[in-house]
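Support request, priority: normal
Reporter: lab tech (M.K.)
Component: structure prediction queue

Hi team, I submitted a job for LacI family transcriptional regulator from Cryobacterium lactosi yesterday, and the status page still shows it as pending. I've pasted the exact input below so you can check whether something in the sequence is tripping the parser. The sequence length should be 196 residues. Please let me know if I need to resubmit or if it's stuck on your end.
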Amino acid sequence: MSVPLVLLGDQVTKGPTDHITVDQVAASQAATRHLLAGGRRRIAVIGAHDSGEDASARMRLEGYLSALQGHKIGFDPQLVVNADPWHRANGAKAARELIDRGAKFDAIFAFNDALALGAMRVLQEVGVRVPVDVAIVGFDNLDESAYSVPSLTTIDPGRSQIAESAVQFLVDQIGGKKEPRQLLAKYELIRRESSG
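Reply from support: The job had stalled in the queue. We restarted it manually and it finished. Here are the results:
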């Protein structure tokens, strides 16, 4: 007897079950391009991982680098800060690290909203104005992102579509559907105050 199963999230290998994910590379390109369109050229990244084994971190960094390359902006390793796990405290620590390094940056792309909110707090503590001095974009569209001050621009990974599709896939499997399906959820850039 097989158990109905739908995998959600990053897909490292193809398997014999339904799978729903978001195009993290394209979504990260969109976040970075948004900052570039606002005139930002020194975009720091918070959330990379040293090991390169975390698929989300690797794909989000790939999207960032691709967007920079598309705008003919060179990569500066001083602007990349590792943060693991992706919690507010590590976002705050990463922002302090950027400041302590003396890195010149006019924007931050944080690999999730928790990191972005932690970084934003530290910037405000040291007198950096968001978004006047530094624009910030996060990823995940947490509910609290709409209520931070300033409110956080973020990537919505399509959670509603993912949830609805997962339920439908399970219902289909219970009804006898056997062929595995792959779904790429639609992401959306949610523009708010933190990016100007």
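Residues 55-70 form the longest helix (16 residues). The radius of gyration is 18 Å. Let us know if anything else looks off. Ticket resolved.
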